[in-house]
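Database export, one record per block. Field names are fixed; values are copied verbatim from the stored entry.
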Amino acid sequence: MNRMNNLSIDHLTGIRDLTKEDIDLIFKTTDSFKQVINRPIKKVPSLRDITVANLFFENSTRTKLSFELAEKRLSADIVNFSSSGSSVKKGETLLDTVNNILSMKVDMVVMRHPNPGAAHYLSQRIKAKVINAGDGTHEHPTQALLDAYSIREELGSVEGKKVVIVGDILHSRVALSNIYCLQKLGAEVMVCGPTTLIPKHIHELGVLVSHNLREALEWCDVANMLRIQLERQDIRFFPSIREYTMMFGLTKEILDSLSKKIVVMHPGPINRGVEISSEVADSDQSIILNQVENGLAVRMAVIYLLAAKVER
């Protein structure tokens, strides 16, 4: 692959730092890696000289597995770290933890952390390249990139498309990163959910706001259904899960009653029967499994492009 084209960034801490040209380069590189992961030999020797540390201070299944597999497909050496059972539990600071790992000559850090801004904080203080795998309720840039890439793959383009993000917008890092990414690529964005789960000033980001699911679905080309993040809620934001599902759950009956065919997405994990029914999740309008496959290729692309900036 040609490395003549470079990203304008040294770290991927958020979508806001990316230019449209950066995103186009990531997508172009993703196209190449999609071919790699679908051939009999799914590995390339591109990063045999790179060591990546995966630092997960929050629970994760899909994102952690996706990053780890992406690194292995690129032939990188991997160090996996989990905060449970680590010295973090003894009071060690984030910076001390990371510096101890970097003393083992690590070139890149993939980090998920419960505190917003943690990845940016780290990127200002260490030499290794930093990829944000989710920081609190702030951003999740690779999820936004894979979502936008999946829309492009399904509909041919992101520009001019109407995308509604439905659910717990208030606690979602996926929603914020998706808004930034989709707008950079020329899409119109709407958020939909209960009033209590929509940030008060979100319209200042240039998005439309709806509290009516059917109205939002009739407007959109793509519906990205988010789960209710109960683990981030210290108070009740709606009376019951049952009432939420009645108002904002996407069922096959609703989907079939729309005046046009829309694309259905979900970043996972899915709460079947809450924000989306099994019939919808498994329908031919759903591209949820495509998102998972594309997530692997997108993360390979991001790691590969940032590795080109590692100082030797």
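Remark 1: Residues 15-140+292-307 form a domain with the Rossmann fold fold (CATH 3.40.50.1370).
Remark 2: The chain has two domains: 15-140+292-307, 141-287.
End of record.
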